[in-house]
Amino acid sequence: MVSRIMASPFLFFTFAIACPLFLFMFQSQAAPNLGVGRVKASKIDSQKVNLSVYYDTLSLNCSSFIVRNLARVFDQDLITILNLRLVPWGNAHFNKSTNATVCQRGPDECKLSTLEACVIDVFHDVNKQFALIYCFEFLAIEGRQNDWKTCFNSLGLPQKSVLDCYSSGNGTKLERKYSNETVKLNPPPRFVPWVLVNNQPIRNDYANFALHVCNAYKGRNMPKACQSLPPS
């Protein structure tokens, strides 16, 4: 699956054309049942399902999951019943002797992870968060992760606050928090992406996260995304 994405210049060209409309698509699909025109990442609803994704930013499995699967949270109002939380840390670790972050795929992965941590911290709107991270991860699949700045222009989003977060070291502090959180997971992640629904890992079935989210939802207003799924 991933190799076909990387080998397809047509797919990248399609994304380049569609990117300016991407954020609008998220906003228009996520808003209808909220009454406020957007979905807030920090909004807490006791009936909503918590969907947490622990991932490496340059893992092809993770990038493909985000681009091909996780983007479906914005289909048929699924986003209205869940709190989406992205944790860009995965298999990274801190070298205590050098006080530096070590990432499985080298410095580029560390940089992208910190940038995505800053995106999550700066943009409280889950639509904007995900649109940028989707764009970053799409470029990563194409081997063009160093072109991440183009995502801000394509989506019409300001980059200064994210760059300030990164250059000030705040992004590194955010990553340390993600590290501590990941280490405390029980059971510990066995691979990435490691997906949790209401704090319970769904392990190898992460591609079918929507089914797990719908089964866990206890609210009355079931979105169309759940109505079209097979029974549990």
TrEMBL record:
<keyword id="KW-0325">Glycoprotein</keyword>
<feature type="signal peptide">
    <location>
        <begin position="1"/>
        <end position="18"/>
    </location>
</feature>
<dbReference type="Pfam" id="PF03227">
    <property type="entry name" value="GILT"/>
</dbReference>
<dbReference type="GO" id="GO:0016671">
    <property type="term" value="F:oxidoreductase activity, acting on a sulfur group of donors, disulfide as acceptor"/>
</dbReference>
<keyword id="KW-0732">Signal</keyword>
<protein>
    <submittedName>
        <fullName>Gamma-interferon-responsive lysosomal thiol protein</fullName>
    </submittedName>
</protein>
<dbReference type="InterPro" id="IPR004911">
    <property type="entry name" value="Interferon-induced_GILT"/>
</dbReference>
<comment type="similarity">
    <text>Belongs to the GILT family.</text>
</comment>
